[in-house]
Design goal:
Length: about 270
C-alpha cells in the first residue's frame, strides 16, 4: 500500500529553460506536503524518480514539480502534455524546519534546478513574511537562458525585507548582471552571518563550494541547511539505497544541517 502510487493529472507544462520544465499537477485526492519534502513521481509502466515540489504548500488543489531532463525517466516526463496522467507516492522526508527560522535573517542559495525546492521554501516564508527579519536570495544559473522562474523571480522583491542577487556562469549580449559562479555573489551580504540561517540547494559541486564559503563568512555549521540528493528506491527508509553515513536521506533528510553530516566522508559525491 505504501508503495502504491495514486493518480495526478498534468494540467499545464511550463517550459522554464531548454532542459527544465515545470509540471502543474492536479491530485485525484487530498494531498499536502511540507516545504522541502519530496515525492516519488511515476511514469506508468516505465519508472519513477524523486522530486521536491516547487510550489506553495499552502495551495492544496494542485502542486508543481520542476524537472531537469537528465536521463531515462526525466526525458519521459519531458514528453508529457496537459491531460496526461501520472502516479505519485509520498510526500516523504523531513522538509525545512521553517519554525526554527523565525526571527532570523535567512540566506537562500540556489544553483540551476536547485531553485525548485527553494521556491517552495520562498513561498512558505512569504506566507508569514513578518516572522522573518530578512531573506536574501542568491541564485546562479549557467547562462541567462538557464534561469528558471524568469516570469516571477523579480516579483519576489515585493517585500521590503527581501533581497535578490542573480548570477550566470556565462553572460550573453543582453545580460547586465553579475557573471561568475554563485559564490561570487556571496560577498558583502546584508546580514549578520554568525546568527543567520543559510539554506543551500544545487548540484553537489555548487553545494560544496557554497558551504565552504558560508563557513568562511562566519555561518555556523548548525545554521547551514543542505538538501542532499542520493539515488533512491523505496523512499521509506527500507532499502538502504540512499545511505549517507548513519542516515537514510529519504527518511532522515533530504534536508540536513551541515553540523550533522560534516564528519561523513564523501558527502558531496
Ligand atoms: C530528494 C530528491 C529531490 C529531488 N528533486 C528534484 C527536483 O525537484 N527536480 C529535478 O529535476 N531533480 C530532482 N532530483 C533529482 C532527480 O531525482 C534525478 O534527476 C532523477 O532521478 C534522474 O532520473 P533519470 O532516470 O532521468 O536519470 P538516469 O538515467 O537514471 O541518470 C541520469 C543522471 O541522474 C543521476 N540520478 C539518477 N537517479 C537519481 C536519483 N534518484 N537521485 C539523484 N540523482 C539521480 C544519475 O547518477 C545520472 O548522473 C531530486 C532527487 C532527490 C533524491
Ligand atoms: S530510498 Fe530506500 S532507504 Fe532511502
Amino acid at each position: 500500500m505504501l508503495y502504491t502510487p495514486w493518480e495526478v493529472k498534468v494540467t499545464k507544462v511550463i517550459e522554464e529553460t531548454p532542459t527544465i520544465k515545470t509540471f502543474v499537477l492536479k491530485p485525484e485526492r487530498n494531498f499536502s506536503f511540507k516545504t522541502g519534502q519530496f515525492v516519488e513521481l511515476t511514469y506508468p509502466g516505465k519508472g519513477e524518480a524523486p522530486f521536491t515540489p516547487s510550489s506553495d504548500p499552502n495551495v492544496k488543489d494542485e502542486f508543481e514539480i520542476t524537472i531537469m531532463n537528465v536521463g531515462r525517466v526525466t526525458s519521459l516526463f519531458h514528453k508529457l502534455s496537459s491531460g496526461e496522467k501520472l502516479g505519485v507516492r509520498g510526500p516523504y522526508g523531513n522538509g525545512y524546519p521553517v519554525d526554527s527560522f523565525v526571527n532570523k535573517e535567512i540566506l537562500i542559495v540556489g544553483g540551476g534546478v536547485g531553485l525548485a525546492p527553494l521556491r517552495s521554501l520562498i513561498f512558505t516564508l512569504f506566507s508569514r513574511i513578518e516572522q522573518f527579519k530578512k531573506i536574501v536570495i542568491c541564485y546562479g544559473a549557467r547562462t541567462p537562458q538557464d534561469i528558471v522562474y524568469k516570469y516571477q523571480i523579480e516579483s519576489w522583491l515585493k517585500f521590503k525585507n527581501v533581497h535578490l542577487r542573480l548570477t550566470v556562469d556565462r553572460g550573453d549580449e543582453n545580460w547586465r548582471g553579475n557573471v561568475g559562479v554563485v559564490t561570487t555573489i556571496l560577498n558583502d551580504l546584508p546580514l549578520l552571518t554568525k546568527q543567520a540561517v543559510g539554506v543551500v540547494c544545487g548540484p553537489p559541486i555548487m553545494m560544496k563550494f557554497t558551504t565552504l564559503r558560508l563557513l568562511e563568512l562566519g555561518f555556523l555549521p548548525e545554521n547551514i541547511y543542505l538538501s542532499m540528493e542520493k539515488n533512491m528506491s523505496c523512499g521509506l527508509g527500507k532499502c538502504g539505497h540512499c545511505r549517507l553515513g548513519k542516515y537514510y536521506v529519504c527518511k532522515d533528510g533530504p534536508v540536513f544541517r551541515f553540523a550533522d553530516i560534516n564528519e561523513i566522508e564523501d558527502i558531496w559525491d
